[in-house]
Amino acid sequence: DGGITQSPKYLFRKEGQNVTLSCEQNLNHDAMYWYRQDPGQGLRLIYYSQIVNDFQKGDIAEGYSVSREKKESFPLTVTSAQKNPTAFYLCASSTPITGLGEQFFGPGTRLTVL
Amino acid sequence: KNEVEQSPQNLTAQEGEFITINCSYSVGISALHWLQQHPGGGIVSLFMLSSGKKKHGRLIATINIQEKHSSLHITASHPRDSAVYICASQQAYTDKLIFGTGTRLQVFP
């Protein structure tokens, strides 16, 4: 079945540690996105990539890094520089911009920094 | 700056009731998305529309481009419709979305 997978579903880390969240899609989508969701707030865009080996900062990129070495994969690293990393992280993908396609979302990873 | 506002923030209903959730946005857009988020956190895309009306089962989405307003209707609501419904605007020439804060719907038997 085609879709987006994120792992793990729950992740616990100690303060000061970097952590990498996985996102894989087999939908053959060019564009991929990372969002952060906090209680009472709308999803906010962290990073997005429209093509392999290229990515752009979203609205809240500070303290995060990404890579896009393969079309299927868009991992997100939450670094120790991120001041408040505890949140729910969602990955999404979509068809190319010219198609104005809907975004498909993964199941999310809930990160808790202790 | 494009902003998306939803109302109400919370909504409770009895099974069978007709539900309406509203979404307003501040700048011209290329498309408006309605999403559903269940308690586990996963998000499903319900509709993407740029004009008029779309229907899928008991769900109906409408958009008025001139008034910058969209509504999501649920007919004959059911407890399994309980979820957070999120609208998001997509600006022209970009696939970036601006999200509303969501409407939490609870449908009781």
Q: What attributes characterize this protein structure?
A:
heterodimer, A: 114 residues, mainly beta, seven-stranded mixed beta sheet, 11 strands, 0% helix, globular, B: mainly beta, six-stranded mixed beta sheet, 59% strand
What is the structure about, briefly put?
The complex is a heterodimer of chains A (114) and B (109). With 114 residues, chain A is mainly beta.
Overall shape of chain B: globular
Distance between the termini of chain A: 36 Å
- Mean pLDDT of chain A equals 90
Helix fraction of chain A by DSSP (H/I, runs of at least 4): under 10%
Rg over alpha carbons of chain B? 13 Å
- Separate helix tally of chain A: 0
Radius of gyration of chain A: 13 Å
User: Helical stretch count of chain B?
Assistant: 0
By secondary-structure content and strand pairing, the structural class of chain A works out as mainly beta
The helix content of chain B, as a percent range, equals under 10%
Terminal Cα span of chain B: 41 Å
Name the helix and strand elements of chain B from N-terminus to C-terminus, one letter apiece.
EEEEEEEEEEE
Multimer state? heterodimer
Given as residue ranges, the uncertain stretches of chain A (5+ residues, pLDDT < 50) are none
- Show unreliable segments of chain B: none
Which sheet architecture does the biggest sheet of chain A show?
7 strands, mixed
The largest interface is:
A-B, 25 and 25 residues
State the total count of DSSP E strands of chain A: 11
| Secondary structure tally: strands of chain B | 11
What is the ordering of alpha helices and beta strands of chain A?
EEEEEEEEEEE
The biggest beta sheet of chain B, please?
Answer: 6 strands, mixed
